[in-house]
Write a structure and sequence with these properties.
The complex is a heterotrimer of chains A (249), B (315) and C (966).
Chain A lengths: L11 E6 L8 H10 L9 E2 L7 E2 L3 E8 L6 E8 L7 H4 L6 E3 L6 E3 L9 H5 L6 E3 L4 E3 L5 H4 L12 H5 L5 E5 L6 H9 L15 E3 L26 H9 L6
Parallel strand pairs in A: 1-11
Antiparallel strand pairs in A: 1-10, 2-3, 4-5, 6-7, 8-9
Chain B lengths: L4 H25 L7 H24 L18 H25 L5 H26 L12 H23 L5 H27 L6 H5 L7 E5 L7 H6 L5 H28 L5 H25 L15
Chain C lengths: L21 E6 L8 E7 L2 E7 L17 H5 L9 E3 L8 E3 L2 H18 L4 E5 L5 H11 L4 E2 L2 H4 L1 H11 L7 E3 L6 E5 L7 H13 L3 E5 L5 H4 L3 E3 L6 H14 L5 H7 L5 E4 L18 E4 L4 E4 L12 E3 L5 E4 H9 L6 H8 L3 H17 L2 E3 L3 E2 L5 E2 L2 E3 L2 E5 L1 H4 L4 H14 L9 E3 L70 H7 L7 E5 L11 H9 L12 E6 L11 E4 L8 E3 L13 E5 L12 H12 L16 H8 L29 H7 L3 E3 L14 H10 L15 H10 L9 H10 L10 H5 L7 E6 L15 H4 L5 E4 H6 L7 E6 L2 E10 L6 E5 L16 H4 L37 E6 L26 E2 L17
Parallel strand pairs in C: 6-7, 6-23, 9-10, 9-21, 10-11, 23-24, 24-25, 29-33, 30-32
Antiparallel strand pairs in C: 1-2, 2-3, 4-5, 4-25, 8-22, 12-16, 13-14, 15-16, 17-20, 18-19, 26-27, 27-28, 29-34, 31-32, 31-34
The chains are: A alpha+beta (249), B mainly alpha (315), C alpha/beta (966).
Chain lengths: 249, 315, 966
């Protein structure tokens, strides 16, 4: 199954809005929480109460500082599998455990056939694949394949856990293969971009860049209503003259 | 990249094994060595031991070694799968060839045919090993044309040293085996040097700014990592060797892996055979140490693109 | 939806795997936000938790903490059984006892105190979400010594708001996210209203509004702000003063709004030395006076349709001078003291920026007016066909509050909103029920000497809003009645008490010693203490004569093995939030939305697997055992035999007014007030464990002066009468304290307190340098040090949580690159951070987005070794650190040797953001751990701590039920 499908019926993926991600980790823990009991169960944690706690997570948020001084900004940057159209992580897999689904383009690892050689994690430039040291297999974002079609969930819950949880609405889910979908529209409107496009893997997930700061016209201070006397009154005097209006309560 | 000892051991040992296997086969086919059953037995035994030991060692880093058989299925796209297929495939012709040698069927055309096929398979196997790395676009120091030939050349050179040692032990050494080793070592060393020069000279094309797409706003500096203790990605791919440390190790690996063995191979030629055994043993031991170091560096110096997300500026 | 032709070679994935046997709703408790959650249960275990899409607080979203609730629930640090101390305090040596024994001991200790002198019990709760019960219990017990953690959290913000406009931020009100165009956030605020603010920011930015963050640190919400103003800590009041200066200068304040809703035109007597100097001129009925410009005479300022003069000086009928409140306010803020140039250096904000921000605010308020075609009726019965709004909104919490100048700074922020006309209008700030209250609320603190007697309940609630020195809680000698000195001259308007002073005061016997300290859910022996080393000393110090601890008995209730547990004598183990009943009541800390009142419950979704009881159950049981009147029937039997749910349904504070407002009355059809309904909890559970009543459109804005809303509020029991709330630009009660300090009246401060009262009880807000700035040498301690809390741990000490601690297991001291260069520091170098009381060793991280004179760290990451059931070598204990060790709980001695608490002089709010420090590189090779490093605590019980956590493995591979596969 390591060969990539020639085309997929859909390109399901995420659009992540860096303009409003506040780095709250909601997508990180909701992902962990859903998936540790889901398709990839468990997402093991090593030394959970000790000196070196670490585990398998399918989604992580980085914090960056970009630029300096006046131009400086802090950006929170969620990172998970981008469900690339032509990913090497699938083709390097020696067993076929790693595959891209023909119907929706989701890249999955079959936990029953993965031998845990880790080569796919080497082939991924995005750090999207995480080895489960205890399970001995590779884990990765499933785009919540066990949520988005799940008849046991309410229809409005059939979206990835991270999208469902995100408090600011910085995560959007949809078919990026359909130019008319909301997510495709969003990508067009906001200049959504690919990570490392030069690698040639054609990520499905897109990132929306932080917007230019909103500018609000600054009203010129009103200092012209001087009370004709000498023409030279203080701002305080002018304020008192102005405020001495006949106003009805 | 994290230098995993199982992988270092596997690639160096099996490389040397395949080198010995194919050079011994070649020497036999070209009648450069006597087709003595015991020479064959010991030579092939050492070669198969190295290969099999290496392959077994490579399964140590698998999460599910018991599923390793599945790795033969995806040869159409995966160099790792191809390597597996080739490695297993190599056993058949080379095993029969070795058996034929031991049993003295060395005149039969099948034996000759199997010999050449075995040599081909060995080269292909080592080439596949090299291509596992050379095909990874994510690691600039691996995604280079020198990498796969280097694996083959180093396998051949270490194989040549082993073959020479074997011939010395059996009292069959002659100038050609020294010269072969010298030539292969020199060729491997030159390729390695060319590799380092190219790797160092190549501009780093990927930057943190491009990886995150935030470069348009200024330089991108990691502020808060996603987790305060290292995660799998950092443990596996975040390994960094100090520049000074790497320089020292490079020199050491050149000296131990190539220079000393070349000199040691040349000494018997220059001194008409004085201390041949000692020199040959020294060459093999020194090369083993040097090549292990070379392989360690191959991983340790390799920078994965993912490190751009974790604080590296360029890769 | 499903693909037509799945590739047969593709593995078969069960895309409709069974998720849960049962989904139960309840309310999150991972922080103070109280979002609605759905808990998915599988085989009796918690499989998943997500947000309740229908819930008014979170609308389905859930933050990083809420989504990690499973790990909180299954933490090995959970207490398992009642414990009685057997070793020395702090050792962690306990024996396990039965609940019967625990309750007998507690009853004996508490009963003895109640029989003798109820003041000898101090009952303080931490992040308590049941204060209406805990406070009521303390009232019934009869001790005046009760409060929760507001005193070190955000009382300045609440008190300043309630005194000024009967509301404040967070639980009191939110920006109108639908309509606001310009949003300003001051200081660290990630913790209060966690998800609503995140949702709001997303909405605001989506609509193209501007978000300005005024904060020394550019993390969290500040990261997504359109503009970050990296102000110096403690100078926000000055910055806001300069904005007011600019707005007044540019005549960009909403005079129409001020005349209608504020005391701007009220006349203030100007008669230096007189007993009523600075008070409002009033008519015989006590109504404030204004001068009517049309009628040319003094009129009752409360009457509708008058045309009062907004500015000017007037001669009162008695011949004395009076000026309007606005006049006084303008005099102060138009002075050059508040000019942008004058404040630029102190605040670190360039004058140009201040001027531009003021102009932008003016533009948004006056040029981008929001008009809703919604008719409404004002308090005087006048109809309006539109609602006109000024779409500028603000939010601020701890960052401004936790300074010694916090009360006045918070008041300045509230007044800025009022001057822009943006309180409860479309696009501005919006109240959330039961707010607005009157300004200040009509509730006085209870606990005067005559109100306290053995075996007698207190006549009213402990906490309130003094309006004059008459309302203080002082004994005959003028000394504080409360152990924390709230409502004394030290902290007259201490509306939330001073929890941070209880241990210190009790140990020092100042104002008096106590016998029992009873605490709930407050880590006072660690990250909730200022000056941890001394606090631990106070907890363990013995009276040399008696050999007894200075705080003789300490009862503590908590769910987890926190640092404080080791210092208690009797431990009452609480449940996790998924194992309990609770009510989030409008009588307590409400969760209403601006669109309407709401309340909620928690229901047990799983049963405890340990011998633990919910603290509220325990308290009700203790109340019955102690014979507290409201917790027992006449025959002495327990009043609430059904425990907490029984209390939630059947308790009535006043006839018809109970903890829950929804589904009241026999038929469950009444809201707000009504007879008790035995099926009330069932109704809540049916509705997702919350109740929300959406207001009619005409009631949604101008609630402080909206006749229909005011009537509704009276009916609901939120207000006593439908009179409007008048915003207090000039705060007369403050002047009453000043007059007392001048010697007027019966209750006057002792001489040593007078200067302080005079200085800080200014009826107009002003800015002054925080005390630590003023009292320490700026050369010795040149840097401000503050804390922020990572969003995934805010209000939720998450280190027992296996997932959250992976995200942050150790903290660094963040410093500006320039400072790093100056001190030759690189990332991860060790430094000593020193304050005037001590020093801490920690590692630095250099950054750009921080005020160059400020250093900061994540709060409460540092943990004591082995507490929270972490291994001794956990990063939290060895690299993680607390700044608390450096924060003094008492100010340096003043003349006469008296030491005030390190708190706001008005409200007693802990001034832990005032901290000043210096840093230097730590020398010595091979430093790898923090200092001070306290002795590890012993673990009081054995529990298996897994080395590998495979949570969720049990849920995998179970067959789906009727689900298709793809």
């Amino acid at each position: 199954m390591t060969s990539l499908p020639r085309k997929t019926d859909k390109k399901l993926g995420l659009v992540i809005d860096l303009d409003i991600c506040v780095g709250c980790q909601a997508c990180v823990t909701s992902c962990k929480e859903w998936n540790t009991g889901g398709y990839s169960a468990p997402l093991t944690d090593q030394d959970p109460y000790g000196a070196d706690p670490h585990g398998a997570w399918l989604n992580r948020v980085h914090g960056y500082e970009v630029g300096s001084g006046e131009e400086g900004r802090t950006v929170h940057f969620p990172r998970s599998c981008l469900h690339c159209e032509t990913p090497d992580c699938v083709t390097v897999c020696p067993t076929g455990a790693s595959y891209k689904r023909e119907e929706d383009g989701i890249v999955l690892v079959n936990p029953d056939t993965c031998i845990g050689c880790k080569l796919c994690s080497w082939a991924c430039p995005y750090g999207a694949r995480e080895y489960d040291y205890d399970d001995g297999v590779m884990k990765k974002c499933t785009l919540c394949v066990d949520r988005i079609y799940n008849d046991n969930l309410e229809p409005r819950d059939r979206i990835p856990a991270c999208v469902r949880a995100c408090p600011t609405g910085a995560r959007h889910y949809g078919d990026l293969g359909d130019p008319e979908s909301d997510v495709s529209q969003l990508v067009r409107d906001r200049g959504g971009y690919d990570l490392l496009p030069e690698m040639g893997y054609r990520p499905v997930n897109k990132y929306l860049p932080p917007r230019e700061a909103q500018s609000v016209p600054a009203e010129a201070p009103v200092e012209t209503q001087s009370s004709g006397k000498s023409g030279k009154t203080s701002a305080a005097d002018r304020f008192f003259t102005w405020a001495d209006q006949v106003l009805s309560r | 990249m994290h230098p995993a000892y199982s992988v270092i051991l596997f690639t160096t040992a099996s490389g040397a094994g395949y080198g010995l296997l194919s050079l011994l086969s070649l020497a036999g086919l070209l009648n450069l060595v006597p087709l003595d059953p015991w020479l064959g037995f010991v030579g092939f035994f050492v070669a198969f031991a190295l290969i099999t030991g290496g392959l077994l060692s490579s399964t140590f880093h698998l999460g599910h070694p018991e599923r390793a058989w599945r790795a033969f299925s995806q040869w159409r796209t995966s160099w790792l799968s191809r390597e597996g297929v080739a490695a297993v495939a190599t056993y058949a012709p080379t095993g029969l060839f070795a058996l034929g040698w031991f049993l003295g069927w060395t005149e039969h055309w099948i034996w000759i045919f199997l010999g050449w096929v075995g040599i081909g398979c060995s080269v292909v196997t080592v080439y596949c090993t090299g291509m596992i790395y050379a095909s990874l676009k994510t690691v600039r120091q691996w995604y280079m044309p020198q990498v796969a030939p280097l694996y083959v050349l180093i396998a051949a050179a270490t194989g040549a040293l082993l073959l020479n040692l074997l011939l010395v032990v059996f009292g069959e050494a002659s100038a050609w085996s020294f010269w072969t080793a010298i030539c292969l070592l020199a060729l491997a060393m030159l390729t390695k040097l060319a590799y380092w020069i190219a790797a160092d000279a190549e501009s780093k094309t990927h930057t943190a700014g491009r990886a995150t797409g935030l470069g348009r706003f200024g330089d991108v500096r990691a502020f808060e990592p996603p987790h305060s203790t290292p995660n799998f990605v950092m443990r596996e791919m975040g390994y960094r060797v100090g520049r000074k440390h790497a320089r020292t190790l490079r020199t050491l690996s050149l000296v131990l892996g190539f220079a000393i063995p070349i000199v040691a191979m040349a000494m018997p030629l220059l001194t008409s055979g004085v201390g041949t055994g000692l020199w040959s043993t020294l060459a093999a031991i020194s090369a083993a140490a040097g090549i292990l170091m070379e392989r360690w560096l191959f991983f340790a110096e390799a920078q994965h693109v993912v490190t751009l997300f974790y604080g590296e500026q360029e890769a | 939806m499903c693909a037509a032709r799945p590739n047969p070679a593709q593995p078969r994935v069960d895309t409709s795997a069974k998720v849960a046997d049962e989904v139960k709703t309840t309310t999150c408790y991972m922080c103070a936000c109280r979002c609605g959650i759905k808990v998915y249960l599988r085989d009796g275990k918690v499989r998943y938790i997500d947000g309740n899409l229908d819930h008014p607080v979170n609308g389905g979203v859930l933050c990083g903490k809420g989504s990690a609730g499973i790990m909180q629930h299954y933490s090995p640090a959970r207490l398992r059984t009642p414990l009685l101390r057997v070793g020395e305090r702090g050792s962690g040596e306990f024996k396990e006892i039965s609940w019967d024994e625990a309750m007998e001991i507690a009853t004996e200790w508490l009963g003895e105190v109640r029989d003798r002198d109820p003041r000898r019990l101090a009952f303080f709760t931490g992040r308590d979400q049941s204060q209406s019960l805990t406070g009521f219990w303390a009232m019934q017990f009869g001790t005046p010594n009760f409060a929760a953690h507001g005193g070190f959290c955000s009382v300045n913000m609440a008190a300043a708001g309630l005194y000024t406009f009967g509301g404040a931020f967070w639980e009191f009100g939110d920006p109108d996210w639908e309509h606001t165009r310009y949003f300003v956030m001051f200081g660290v605020a990630e913790d209060h209203a966690s998800n609503p603010i995140k949702r709001g920011i997303g909405k605001l930015k989506g609509k193209g509004g501007k978000f300005v963050s005024v904060n020394p640190v550019r993390t969290g919400y500040s990261a997504v702000a359109d503009e970050w103003v990296g102000i110096k800590p403690g100078t926000d009041g000055l910055f806001v003063g300069a904005l007011i200066h600019e707005l007044m200068k540019a005549q960009k304040i909403d005079l129409d709004y001020l005349v209608r809703y504020t005391n701007a035109p009220w006349l203030v007597i100007q008669d230096k030395g007189a007993a009523d100097d600075g008070l409002f001129a009033r008519d015989k009925q006590g109504n404030p006076l204004a001068f009517d410009k049309k009628k040319n005479k003094f009129v009752n300022a409360m009457s509708p349709d008058i045309t009062p003069a907004m500015v000017g000086e007037f001669k009162l009928p008695d011949g004395r001078k009076a000026v309007t409140s606005l006049n006084l306010l303008a005099d102060r803020f138009l002075s050059m003291e508040y000019a942008p140039e004058a404040v630029a250096e102190k605040t670190g904000v360039p004058a140009e920026t201040i001027r531009r921000l003021a102009a932008e605010m003016a533009h948004a308020a006056f040029e981008e007016e929001v008009v809703l075609d919604v008719p409404w009726t004002d308090w005087a019965g006048r109809k309006h066909d539109k609602m006109i709004g000024r779409p500028v909104s603000m939010h601020a919490m701890r960052g401004i509050s936790a300074h010694s100048n916090g009360f006045h700074s918070c008041r300045l922020i509230h007044i800025l909103q009022i001057l822009l006309g943006s309180i409860d209008c479309p696009g501005g700030f919006r109240y959330k029920a039961p707010y607005p209250k009157q300004a200040p609320p009509w509730l006085k603190p209870t606990g005067k000497s005559e109100e306290i007697a053995p075996r007698e309940p207190l006549g009213g609630p402990h906490l309130g809003f003094p309006q004059s020195p008459q309302d203080l809680l002082l004994d005959d000698a003028g000394e504080p009645i409360r152990i924390d000195k709230a409502f004394s001259w030290d902290a007259p308007l201490a509306a939330h008490g001073l929890m941070h002073m209880v241990i210190t005061n009790a140990a020092l016997g100042d104002p008096y010693p106590i016998d029992v300290l009873f605490m709930y859910m407050a880590n006072m022996g660690w990250n909730s203490a200022m000056n941890v080393p001394d606090t631990l000393r106070y907890l363990t110090e013995k009276n040399p004569e008696t050999g007894e601890y200075k705080i003789p008995k300490l009862i503590y209730a908590d769910s987890y093995y926190s640092e404080t547990v080791a210092y208690a004598d009797l431990i009452l183990p609480d449940t996790t939030y998924l194992e309990r009943w609770d009510c989030i009541s409008l009588l307590d800390r409400p969760i209403s939305e601006a669109d309407g009142p709401a309340d909620a419950i928690r229901q047990p979704v799983v049963q405890p697997d340990r011998d633990v009881r919910s603290f509220q159950e325990v308290l009700i049981d203790l109340g019955a055992r102690l014979g507290l009147p409201e917790f027992t029937n006449k025959d002495g039997s327990p009043r609430y035999p059904g425990g907490y749910p029984d209390y939630i349904v059947n308790h009535e504070r006043k006839p018809g007014l109970g903890p829950l407002a929804g589904w009241r009355g026999k038929d469950g059809k009444e809201i707000g007030t009504g007879k008790t309904n035995p099926k009330q909890l069932e109704k809540y559970i049916e509705n997702g464990c919350f109740w929300f009543h959406e207001l009619e459109p005409g009631l949604k804005y101008f609630k402080h002066a909206n006749a229909d809303y005011l009537d509704f509020a009276v009916k609901m029991g939120f207000r006593v009468e439908p009179r409007p709330t008048i915003f207090q630009l000039y705060l007369e009660p403050m002047q009453k304290f000043r007059l007392a300090a001048d010697g007027h009246g019966d209750i006057v401060p002792p001489a040593e307190h007078r200067e302080r009262i005079k200085a800080f009880f200014d009826p107009l807000p002003f800015w002054y340098e925080p005390f630590e700035d003023a009292m320490t040498d700026p050369n010795a301690f040149p840097l401000h040090a503050i804390t922020q809390r990572p969003m995934h741990m805010y209000h939720s000490w998450g280190s027992q949580n296996a997932w959250l601690r992976q995200i942050t297991a150790a903290n660094r001291l963040y410093i500006h690159h320039d400072l790093g260069r100056k001190l030759d520091l690189e990332d991860d170098d060790w430094v000593w951070v020193s304050s005037h009381i001590g020093r801490v060793r920690c590692q630095v991280k250099l950054m750009d987005g921080v005020n160059p004179d400020t250093v900061w760290t994540w709060n409460a990451i540092g943990k004591r070794q082995r507490a929270w059931m972490l291994d001794e070598d956990a990063p939290e204990s060895n690299q993680g650190f607390l700044l608390n060790h450096l924060i003094a709980e008492l100010l340096p001695e003043r003349d006469g040797g008296y030491r005030y608490s390190n708190s706001d002089p008005v409200t007693g709010q802990a001034a832990w953001y005032d901290l000043k420090v210096s840093i230097e590189k730590a020398s010595g090779a091979d430093i790898h751990e923090t200092s001070p490093l306290f002795e590890p605590v012993e673990r009081p019980f054995d529990v298996k701590i897994p080395k590998v956590l495979r949570f969720g493995a049990e849920f995998r591979g179970k067959s789906s039920q009727g689900g298709g596969s793809r």
